[in-house]
Amino acid sequence: MAGPALTRIEPLFHPRIWGARSLAPLFPEQTALAQPVGEAWLTALDCRIATGPYAGRGLQAAWQEMDPWWRGTRLTGAPQFPFLVKFLFPAEKLSIQVHPNDAYAAAHEQAAGGRGKTEMWHALSAESEARVLVGLKSGTNKEKFLAALAAHKAEELLESRSVHPGDTFYLPAGTPHTIGPGMILCEVQEYSDLTYRVYDYGRVDDAGQPRQLHIEKALAVMNFGKIVGGKIASLPLAARGMKKSLLAACKYFATERWEFAQAAELLTNKDHFNLLVILNGSGEINCREGIAPYRRGQAWFLPAALDSPQVIPAEPTTLLRIFVPDLLALRNRLRDDGEEDAAISSVVFD
Asked: What is the pLDDT of residues 257-269, one digit of tens each?
């Protein structure tokens, strides 16, 4: 099923106790909101498809019908759309939290999907004092952490990192973290919504009740040893007529950032589909099967076998290209391009 394959996915907006009342400039129509919205899910299973042959369908319903021309040959057997992409709009601190890995989720969380959660964040904007807490400080063990929780000082045991526009953070499952206010992030993650809250600053929900904590499970999955990931520097990629970099890659997802002001060609790979997330700018996506206008805040699904689509900007454009990588092939390609193993390992994680 080829057809007119330029497929835009509509976002779903989720209220959160820590969210914002305005989602501008990404979503200028989402302002003066009646309740705070914290997350815009771009690839939720029930996101509606707006264009192409699957228009009007939910993403997961469409995924179940897509053949290898759409999905890619390596994803033929994947029962569910493979990754979740969100925009985050924190106006207050999120809870201190941690996510389980696949093994723990499979053993203890089958009712919630049985998948762990590894993720990355990319900062679209950040105020001068914006910070995140990612990972435990050296020497922190379970006993010290429990004592800090009891004293309401858990933040003091997490590594505090400043956030600037363009920063990237990689968080493997088991990394305790929280996000502060004053930024907009794009989060790319393994498709899972499993979160274990450890500390929530004494907040209550609309019914006046504290939100549930999951301390026992959190301690079971928290990484008290060597820290992997955290704030990472992107890897510049060779590209003609644009600035391109690899932000982070693992077996669940790979994310590139593109910045360009002239036509950019996407060399597709029949192994996997591509998701384009427009961070800034506007223009057209052009392929043999048609032309579609794009603008900031949109997510576009491009089939694996689409023949060399072009992104043609009407104004300077920044986007994220997200796909499910073959890590061995990715590493080999980067080596062929002259990258040293140490540089590759700084952004490509097992």
From this structure: 999 999 999 989 9
Give pLDDT tens digits for 3-26. 468 999 999 999 999 999 999 999
Would you tell me which CATH number, out of the four given (1.10.4100.10, 3.40.50.300, 3.40.50.2300, 2.60.120.10), belongs to the domain 235-345? Answer: 2.60.120.10
The residues pairing with 286 across neighbouring beta strands, listed in sequence order, are 291, 310
- CATH 2.70.40.10 matches 7-71+78-232: no
Angle at 287 between CA 283 and CA 288, to 5 degrees: 145
**Helix intervals (H) in 80-183:** 102-108, 142-150
Cα 47-51-56 angle, rounded to 5 deg: 50
**CA proximity to 108, closest of 192, 223, 210:** 192
Take residue 292 and report the two structure tokens written for it: 């579609």
Cα separation, 170 vs 161, in Å, equals 13
The full set of domain ranges for the chain reads: 7-71+78-232, 235-345
Are 321 and 38 within 8 A, CB to CB? no
Instruction: Tell me: pLDDT of 217 over 60.
Output: yes
Nearest alpha-carbon partner for 169 in 95, 252, 237, 234: 234
| Assigned token pair, 238 | 């060779």
Please tell me the pTM assigned to this model. 0.97
